[in-house]
Write a structure and sequence with these properties.
Blueprint lengths: L2 H15 L2 E9 L6 E6 L6 E2 L2 E3 L6 H13 L6 E13 L13 E11 L13 E7 L4 H4 L5 H21 L9 E2 L3
Length: 183
């Protein structure tokens, strides 16, 4: 089974089981090594990678492209490269109820995304994104200090993966699957 088919099957399985909601996540890095973070409208202390739900029957890369266009105005032709990094399940906080009926949390599918023109101005969808920022690698820990610990650790794991692979091999190739549980 090729990787795209495998990712599709994992997302479809998540929809079928209704445990972990499948979500496509974009780790966007510019030519200066900075990463793009978006600020949640619902919680201004929460910064994360651009992301969005994968709909039933939708391919994860299609969902990623759709979400990037909806949330930031990045059209598919503006994306130079998409590389699948891996997936992780993260349990929801105990007090948080999912409106879509998923019982355990989210299944994040991480992709490294390279945009054609990283200096372009994005157009955040104000109903979902309050702001966006390019953040240098050495500023990420401080920048994410107010983000929920389990989510911050998950993002840092994938940033380290991208940084390490880029420095050592000039490319990224990995996948993983584990569960992060909130404190």
């Amino acid at each position: 089974m090729d990787r795209k088919t495998e990712v599709f099957a994992l997302a479809a399985g998540a929809h079928q089981k209704k445990e972990y909601r499948p979500v496509a996540v974009a780790v966007i890095q510019d030519s200066c090594g900075r990463y793009l973070f978006v600020q949640s409208v619902k919680d201004l202390q929460e910064w994360s990678f651009p992301q969005g739900g994968i709909e039933v029957g939708e391919d994860a890369e299609e969902a990623l492209s759709r979400e990037l266009q909806e949330e930031l105005g990045i059209v598919r032709s503006g994306i130079a490269r998409i590389v699948y990094l891996g997936n992780e399940d993260m349990d929801a906080e105990s007090a948080r109820k999912d409106k879509r009926g998923f019982t355990r949390g989210k299944r994040y599918f991480f992709f490294l995304v390279t945009v054609q023109n990283p200096s372009q101005r994005f157009t955040p969808q104000r109903g979902e994104i309050a702001d966006y920022r390019w953040v240098a690698t050495d500023e990420v820990n401080q920048f994410l200090a107010t983000t929920r610990a389990t989510k911050r650790l998950l993002m840092l794991k994938y940033l380290a993966l991208v940084s390490e692979s880029s420095m050592q091999h000039g490319h990224v190739h990995t996948e993983s699957h584990s569960v992060y549980t909130p404190e």
